[in-house]
Design goal:
Elements: H1 3-7, E1 11-14, E2 22-25, H2 27-31, H3 33-45, E3 53-57, H4 60-72, E4 75-79, E5 88-96, E6 99-106, E7 115-123, H5 127-138, E8 142-151, H6 157-160, E9 166-171
C-alpha cells in the first residue's frame, strides 16, 4: 500500500474527547495490515541511524515504536501515564489542547548520553512531545528527534519543539 493511501485511512471524529475538538483516529490505519506496514516503514525510514533507543509515548506510540524497534533491532522504553510503572525515574506535568496531563519514565532503562528518538501518533500543541523530551533529557538521554504520523499544523506544536528535529508523515 502506498503511504498516501495508508494515511487516507485516518478518520476524523468531531467533538471528541470534548465539544470543539476534531480528533484524528488512527485506529482504522493501525487495523489495516498494509497501511500499518506502510506507516511503520515510512517512520523507520527517516530514523536517525545513530538512535540507540525508541521512546514510545502512551498509547499509540507504543504500537508504532514497538514495530520500528523490532524492524531495526532497537529497544523501546514506554513513556507512560501516572500509576502504570513500578519504578519511576521522573515525572512531568504538561498542557494539552484540551487540558493537562502527566507522563512518567521508568527507572533504570535510559542511560546517560543515550541517543533516543521519541515516537508518537499525533503532534498537536506539542505539549506531549516536549514533555517526553524533557523527561528523557532529565534522565541524561540525548533526544535526537521526534517522529509522528500526523501533525496538526494549526495547533503550533512544531514551534513548541523549536530546535528539535521533527519528522511527520502528514501535515494537516
Amino acid at each position: 500500500m502506498l503511504l498516501d493511501d495508508a494515511l487516507g485511512l485516518i478518520s476524523e471524529v468531531p467533538d471528541f474527547p470534548e465539544p470543539g475538538v476534531l480528533f484524528r483516529d488512527l485506529t482504522p490505519l493501525l487495523a489495516n495490515p498494509a497501511g500499518f506496514a506502510a506507516v511503520v516503514d515510512a517512520l523507520a525510514g527517516s530514523l536517525d541511524p545513530e538512535v540507540e533507543l525508541l521512546a514510545a509515548v502512551e498509547a499509540r506510540g507504543f504500537l508504532l515504536a514497538a514495530a520500528m524497534g523490532y524492524a531495526h533491532g532497537l529497544g523501546v522504553v514506554p513513556v507512560r501515564k501516572p500509576g502504570k510503572l513500578p519504578a519511576v525515574a521522573g515525572r512531568i506535568d504538561y498542557a494539552l489542547e484540551y487540558g493537562t496531563a502527566t507522563l512518567e519514565l521508568p527507572a533504570g532503562v535510559v542511560r546517560a548520553g543515550q541517543r533516543v528518538a521519541v515516537v508518537d501518533d499525533v503532534l498537536a500543541t506539542g505539549g506531549t512531545a516536549a514533555a517526553a523530551c524533557k523527561l528523557l533529557e532529565s534522565a541524561g538521554a540525548e533526544v535526537s528527534e521526534v517522529l509522528v504520523v500526523l501533525e496538526l499544523a494549526a495547533l503550533g506544536g512544531r514551534a513548541v519543539l523549536a530546535g528539535r528535529k521533527v519528522h511527520t508523515l502528514q501535515v494537516c
